[in-house]
Each structure stands twice: as structure tokens, then as C-alpha cells.
Amino acid sequence: MPEPVTHDLRVIVAGGGEMGLRTAELLDDRGHDVVIVEPNPDRVDDLADEYVATIIEGDASRPEILRQAQPERSDVVAALTDDETTNFAVCMAAQRMSDVRTVMRINETPDDLYEEFVDGLVFPERLGARAATNEIANGGVRTIEDIGGNVEVVELEVADDAPVAGKRLDEVRLPRGSLIIVDYQGNRIGGPDTLLEAGHRYVLAVESPVADEVMNLFRG
Prior knowledge:
Alpha-Beta Plaits, 6-stranded parallel beta sheet, disordered N terminus, 2 domains, 12 strands, alpha/beta, Rossmann fold, elongated
């Protein structure tokens, strides 16, 4: 299980699209230092106006550009472009340059081998930026499926200091619009006697309006 973050992070975000910007905003709100690397000059101008990150213009999959972002001074490199191949290349280059944690956005069901090469995987759906932020900051969140409308299926790991840690489901007031589907062993539907153990993962269906509340209950 990833160690809880007890200090401000320096995070490189490759890709300044909607997901990259939203992730940078969430990280900035938490006090972390963010650098966005974005190749589109017009988008770079827009990002600069947001004042949430240092902006570097260029393609982060090119080592000379990524090196400008100083991965050796960073805690995490998060490749969040809409191109899966580019994201993998960024993560591989970052790992060659420094001992840095890597988080990669994927667009479809992940290649089983990705987890051997990168530290975290995130999906690009509506909860994507929120999930990416939590994966960058302390891990334990993964968007599994976009059902449609406002509902997503997410896999959440209970943090050690989470409000729900060590409690049974009937002792926890999950917000209306959220439902535990499978317990961490994956062999039974969540019920009143489901124990929410720290360090274990649970699959939930979550409506977007209550996503933040659910994240706070499980991640602290």
C-alpha cells in the first residue's frame, strides 16, 4: 500500500487538456507544486491564464522537453494525455531519468503488463481527474467503468486514517447515490456486515454529485 503523503509534492503533469488541467487544479488546491507540459501553443496560453501550475511548452514524450521539467526534482510524473502510447513513453523516459513515481492515463482496459512498468493507472472518465489526483497524492483510487449518465464504477482502497476504516458498512453512513458492489475478496456483494478494512480495496458504484464525499470517506 502506498505510504500516506505527509509533505507537499512536486508533480509533473504531461498533457494540459481537460483532465490534465483539472488534475492540476485539484493538486494545487491541496498545496502541491505542479508543472504542466503541453505541446499546443494556444493551449499553453490558456493554461498560463489559470495560474495553477508552471507551464512548459513542448511534447513531454521527447526527453529533452521532459528534462526541462526536472523529473529528478519531482515526486510524481503523471502522463495524462489522450494518447496511451505517448503516456507510456513519458513514464518510461521519466523512470530512466530519475527515481520518480509514475502515473499513466489509459483509454481502455489496461494491458496486464502495464502495472509491471508504471506505479499507477487512471481512466479518463468523469471521475478521471479526481481519481488521478488521489493516485498521484497517495494512490488507492481507480475508475473502472463509465456506466452512463452520472454513474461510475470505481475501485477504492481504504486509507489507514479514513473515516470508514475498521468499520462495518452498517456503521457507516454512505451518501445516497453510492453503493458497495463487491468486497475486497471479490467473492460477495457488499452488505451490512461488510468490514471496511484499511489497506483493502472495494468496488463501488458512485453518482458524480456525491463522488467527493465518498472519496473523503475512503481516502481521508
